[in-house]
Amino acid sequence: MPLDRNEIPASEDVFSAAQNIAGMVHETPLLSSRQLNELTGANLRFKCEHLQKVGAFKARGAANALSLLPDGVEEVATHSSGNHGAALAWAAAQRGLACTVVMPETAPKTKRMAVEGYSAKVVTSGPSLADRESTLAKVLEETGAHEVPPYDDKRIIAGQGTVAMEVLKQSREQGFAPDVIVAPVGGGGLLSGVGLAMAALAPDILVIGAEPAGADDAQRSLRGGVHITTQQPDTIADGLRTTLGGKNYAVIERTVRDIVTVSEAGIVNAMRLLWTRTKQLVEPSAAVGLAAIIEHSARFRNKNVVVVLTGGNMDLDKVGPLLSSEEN
Amino acid sequence: MPLDRNEIPASEDVFSAAQNIAGMVHETPLLSSRQLNELTGANLRFKCEHLQKVGAFKARGAANALSLLPDGVEEVATHSSGNHGAALAWAAAQRGLACTVVMPETAPKTKRMAVEGYSAKVVTSGPSLADRESTLAKVLEETGAHEVPPYDDKRIIAGQGTVAMEVLKQSREQGFAPDVIVAPVGGGGLLSGVGLAMAALAPDILVIGAEPAGADDAQRSLRGGVHITTQQPDTIADGLRTTLGGKNYAVIERTVRDIVTVSEAGIVNAMRLLWTRTKQLVEPSAAVGLAAIIEHSARFRNKNVVVVLTGGNMDLDKVGPLLSSEEN
Questions:
Q1: Of the candidate ranges A99-113, A152-166, B160-174, B273-287, the one whose mean pLDDT is the lowest
Q2: What is the pTM of this model?
Q3: Rounded distance, CA A155 to CA A92, Å?
Q4: Which domains does chain B have, with CATH numbers?
Q5: In this complex, do A323 and B324 lie within 8 Å of one another by their Cβ atoms?
Q6: 3-class secondary structure, B259
Q7: Which residues, 6+ apart, have CB-to-CB distance to B22 below 8 Å?
Q8: Nearest-angstrom CA–CA distance, B245 and B154
Q9: Within 10 Å of residue A300's Cβ, how many Cβ atoms?
Q10: Which residues are CB-contacts of A156 (< 8 A; sequence separation ≥ 6)?
Q11: With contacts defined as CB-CB under 8 Å, which chain A residues touch B94?
Q12: Interface check B117 vs A, CB under 8 A
């Protein structure tokens, strides 16, 4: 099925999103670290979306989507094992809407508690994507709820793109002139949104995606020029196991310079560096940008680079032990 | 030996310290957390000294001490198993001074690496306080280095007190009117400095110390009116195992309302809350203030409370596993 061109967002949708969500989300800090600059040979700024509402940039897209609902919608629904479910639950609670999130039985308890903490209803499904989709279809049919997808959605992409608008504003305030912005890519909501914003506002800033080598469908799609829609992901970066969406690919193809991949060891090492050097508790997916700076150092050396730290939600029981090996 | 009154700092020493160290240390953020406000029933602000130079407020005291050295000093020395050693090494490197830190053989490898990372010389001693002091005495005799003690020192106390001056400035900027400020107490450098600053600048703000029940010499000293100089500490909060200093006690007796104690389980729970709710990687000692708010809730409910987060340096191998139990 070809994409409806009206459903592919434009830069103007990002600008509107910034107005739609103003006052609902935080302007998160843009931090520097002298130690990480010395270690990487680049001049880095970290955009701290782990300090965003619900602990992830996903709050932006969810808030924007709910500001653009069709008339009469009183209930929304999605399926999610991660931050999008919590973000939608949060945004629905802000607007007094009912919300149902289909979560696989394998979802971490902390994620389920987060969704329930925002008063949303959790419906448990089997673990596969087919299980999740069929359970969601049943929910939509029974409740008449409006579906808000996690990334392959014009409103979501536009919302995530507001991160880049904030980065530009804060860079100006700090007297920092970015050469490059690096954002992790899973489904592609963030990267496509950042691409749209930069294409219109700062076309001289290169937009680079970063993804785990164990979930490299976005790189293969962009470099090969054909959208790959299946993969068997194998990575600790649970937020990046999803496959690039169609609308996301369409935008990325027009606005993103390249996508680089990083190793699993590189992700863990970058996460450890972020924890110990910046004292910021970021989740594995959020460390993929710094991992890219380190593993592709020639590309970033002596450049002014913004790295998006995407979220800070994780099961400390599972992630903590990964850090226990000696520092490299 | 009675204290020399000239060696007990006054509020003016804190004001001078702020000028002495301006430009050398960070103005660290004063953060809020809606979730922790709801959980505690208090209106909290967290002063983020784990984001200070060397990852702890100790940078302030060390920077101030080295701005007030006697003429002709070219080398400084101390003994430390913790953040003071790194802070002194950092401050000495800033001023081009040689620095030796006596560290017990039991000191964590990460702390030793931090000191060496600032180009200081590490001399290893036996683990007891007597071992450390005799090794330092030998170093002082052999090198002629000037000793900078970790807390029982006028310049150090004055430097740590600059935290409170920043808190007052930032509170004004945020439209926040503190009723109470809570600071952890070990040797008492921070708490006495904060007491001095508040006594002069904001005498209506209560200053409360917080310490582990397993190292409660400061509470027993203040409540009993007699300075207790020995204890067998037993606490995970390694930064607070030291015994209250004489100059520190003299200041605390005049400027601090009370000292409360917290349980070990309370410290771990508060650290877990800070990690998961604020995404800030603080060390166990830094969680003692929030633990006090939770364990003495009647005292803080509906109050505007500043909590000093003192540092973020720890051995993740040892501290991580403590967080793995289910959240209470």
A1: A99-113
A2: 0.89
A3: 15
A4: 5-57+153-324 (3.40.50.1100), 74-144 (3.40.50.1100)
A5: no
A6: strand
A7: none
A8: 11
A9: 23
A10: A61, A62, A64, A65, A148, A149, A150, A189
A11: none
A12: no
Structure tokens belonging to residue B244? 């209250």
How many angstroms separate the CA of residue A326 from the nearest CA in chain B? 9
How many beta-carbon pairs under 8 angstroms link A with B? 49
Whole-number Å distance between alpha carbons of B138 and B299: 48
Nearest-neighbour CA in chain A from B164: distance (Å): 22
- Residues of chain B neighbouring A323 (CB-CB closer than 8 A): 316-317, 320
Q: In this complex, is the C-beta atom of A322 within 8 Å of any C-beta atom belonging to chain B?
A: no
Could you tell me if B287 and B271 are in contact, meaning their C-beta atoms sit under 8 angstroms apart?
A: yes
Looking up tokens 């330092």 gives B136
What's at B276, amino acid-wise?
T
Query: Tens of pLDDT along A237-270?
Result: 989 999 999 999 999 999 999 999 999 999 999 9
Give the closest of A280, A317, A323 to B316, CB-based. A323
Least CB-CB distance to B323: which of A272, A279, A316? A316
What band does B108 get if pLDDT is binned at 50, 70 and 90? Answer: confident
Q: Residues 30 to 69 of B: which have CB under 8 A from any A CB?
A: 50-51, 55
Please state, in angstroms and rounded to a whole number, the distance separating the CA atoms of residues B193 and B255. Answer: 9
Q: What is the DSSP-derived secondary structure letter of residue B263?
A: -
Residue B326 has pLDDT above 60, yes or no: no
Helices B83-95 and B58-67 sit at what angle, rounded to 10 degrees?
Answer: 40
Cα A142 off chain centre by: 30
CA distances from B302 to A243, B32, B40, B270 (A): 47, 15, 9, 19
The answer to whether A209 and A258 are in contact (CB under 8 A) is yes
In angstroms, the separation between the Cα of residue B253 and the nearest Cα of chain A is: 34
List of residues 6+ apart from B261 with CB closer than 8 A: B210, B211, B212, B213, B216, B219
Model ipTM? 0.82
Q: Which of residues 255-284 of B touch A (CB under 8 A)?
A: 272, 275-276, 279-282
Residues B66 and B95: their CA atoms lie apart, in Å, by 8
Which of B55, B279, B320 comes nearest A312 by C-beta?
A: B279
